[in-house]
Amino acid sequence: MTTDQHARPLGTPRHHHDEIGSTNDEARRLGADGAPHGTTVTATAQTAGRGRQGRPWVAPPGQALTVSVVLRDLPSPAMLPLAVAVAVAETVGAEARIKWPNDVVLADDHGPLRKIAGILCEGRPSEGWAVAGIGLNVALDLDAVPDEIAARAATMGRDPSEIDAVLAELLERLATAIALPDATLLEAWSARDVLRGGTISWVRPGGGAGGTGVAQGVDERGRLLVRTDAGVEALDAGEVHLERR
Asked: Facing residues of 209 across strands?
């Protein structure tokens, strides 16, 4: 990456679509075609938005920030999901917490975790690029979504006209987060870790044994550390699915 590419702010160039299948799919296409670091894809509406393990991600048009950013030559590719989560949580505010591996949530003592953002990082590390995909409920009208979604969703409560301002703040925070030393990033992530110290259960969608244990934070590869009766196990986000809490 050249010095000029390092200096280019995230969000340049920006490709905005009134409607698209998936911003991540488009950003991956651009990345494979050589799009520069910072190339950003946004959309007012997605028709095939998706989260981790292919699960759908749905938001009414114009109420959520849907954005995917092409990133090149990252110093620590394995840490990208943590950096994105920190940037999103800081954009949401002090009350935001991070739920490994890819959610930003609001939590209270009397109800379920309420998801305000989802993250999907993809790419080709061997070719030096990745895509950070984010769906953030900036102006979600909870009365306009199905009850089962409203019960577990949260919103920033902003006006739809503020989505671009939120995008600008998020991209600035993301640029800072991906440049942090690993130890500093882990500290920032851990300060918002909503699972640490709690009992979790997981399954392996592709087969293999699941388990239950107490979350102990994450390691330098972004794996969730869980203390079980057999010792500490490191869970990879691509191999497990946490059961709903």
From this structure: none
